[in-house]
Amino acid sequence: MKKWAMIGTWKMSYDGIDKASAVLEEGGSAGDAVELAIRQVEDCPDFTSVGFGGLPNELGEVELDAAYMNGKTLGIGAVAAVKDCKNPISIARDLSNEKFNCFLVGEGAERFASLKGFEKKNMLSPEANDQYEKRKKEIIEENLSPYDGHDTVGIIGLDKNGHMVVGTSTSGLFMKKPGRVGDSPIIGSGFYVDEKIGGASCTGLGEDIMKGCLSYEAVRRMEEGLSPKEIAQPLVDEFSKKLEKRQGKAGAISIIVMDKNGNWAIGTNVEFSFVVARELEGIGTYLASVDGNRVKIHKI
Ligand code: SD4
Questions:
Q1: Is the CB of 184 under 6 A from ligand 1?
Q2: pLDDT exceeding 70 applies to what percent of the chain?
Q3: Cα 22 to Cα 64: distance, rounded to the nearest angstrom
Q4: Are residues 257 and 228 in contact, defined by beta-carbon separation less than 8 angstroms?
Q5: What spatial distance separates the first Cα and last Cα of the chain, rounded to whole Å?
Q6: pLDDT one-digit tens code per residue, 122-162
Q7: What is the pLDDT of residues 238-273, one digit of tens each?
């Protein structure tokens, strides 16, 4: 028997991980726990970067990306740029059982979801619409960059049977071009898990995270024998430097890493909050802040 554990990006994952911890405590599966935790974030209108309440693209439409990976079978399911789907993570989980057609985008994903009976919903909340109208004005009047305000929920779960799962869900970049897809539904970039080794998930500027396939790289280093601590921050530092050299600047990058025994670490080049829950230890929210070349983590 293993001790269960979960780690999730951003403090918005707290309530979901809290609920899902009870599932793992009672011997439930990592898959059920991760799906439950992410649905909780998707359903909450207060989070402006995931599910209902997520910020829209430049046409004012909410397009969502999500993925699910089963660390036992290595099955993946993902959807990208889907509209009007209440819980993209559940569609992604369903797709992870498919041998073919496991990653669907746009209308194809919406058609699959509707044939399978997944709940439909207009995902644009009145508050997100207000922010969209405000930002549209600011972009024209103040020449502001449209592409900020983005956070992905990424959660890794380990259950008592040693099974591991990772899931992600996001509305991507605020004011993105219609059809834009970030790292979150892309295997190896936004997420990866192999329960014989461990898992990882990223959040930040998808266009930059994808250039390093960072989640796969973290798991690959774990397979070589490095611990999450030896991997997470060095990987972000190394890759940020590489991007600075090659393209002048690195976007925001944060990664969560957990091994098959529930040992965890994070790496980041921006202020980053995250949530960890482990059997016998309970749940906590942490804040990582970047101070020059050093990253300090404290419980909040
Ligand atoms: C994306 N990586 O679509 C996502 C957004 C995100 O913190 O995670 N932001 O690029």
A1: yes
A2: 97
A3: 28
A4: yes
A5: 31
A6: 888 988 888 888 888 887 777 666 566 568 999 999 999 99
A7: 999 999 999 999 999 999 999 999 999 999 999 999
Amino acid at site 244 = E
Mean pLDDT of the chain: 94
Where helices occur in 44-165 by DSSP H, the ranges are: 88-95, 106-115, 126-142
**Which secondary-structure segment (H or E) carries 287?**
strand 282-291
Catalytic residue among 9, 48, 152, 168: 152
Identify the residue with better confidence: 192 or 129. Answer: 192
Distance from Cα 79 to the centre of ligand 1, integer Å: 15
Neighbours of 169 (CB within 10 A): 29
- Which residue of 47, 170, 211, 214 sits with most ligand 1 atoms within 8 Å of its CB, as the best mutation to test the pocket? 170
Q: Annotated catalytic, 152?
A: yes
* Residue 217 DSSP symbol: H
Confidence of residue 208 (pLDDT cuts 50, 70, 90): very high
Give the Cα separation of 285 and 299 in Å (integer): 6
Nearest-atom number in ligand 1 for the CA of 182 is: 3
- What are the structure tokens assigned to 148, written together? 């900020």
Q: Please say if the pLDDT value at position 1 is more than 90.
A: yes
User: 169: Cβ below 6 Å to ligand 1?
Assistant: no
Q: Which residues contact 149 (CB under 8 A, 6 or more apart)?
A: 48, 49, 55, 173, 174
In 3D space, the residue among 73, 71, 88, 94 whose CA is nearest the CA of residue 153 turns out to be 88
Atom of ligand 1 at shortest range from CA of 176: 3
Please report, for the chain, the start and end positions of each structural domain, with discontinuous segments joined by +: 5-196+269-286
Top-confidence residue, 60 or 45: 60
Question: Is the pTM above the cut of 0.90?
Answer: yes
The minimum-distance atom of ligand 1 relative to the CA of 152 is 8
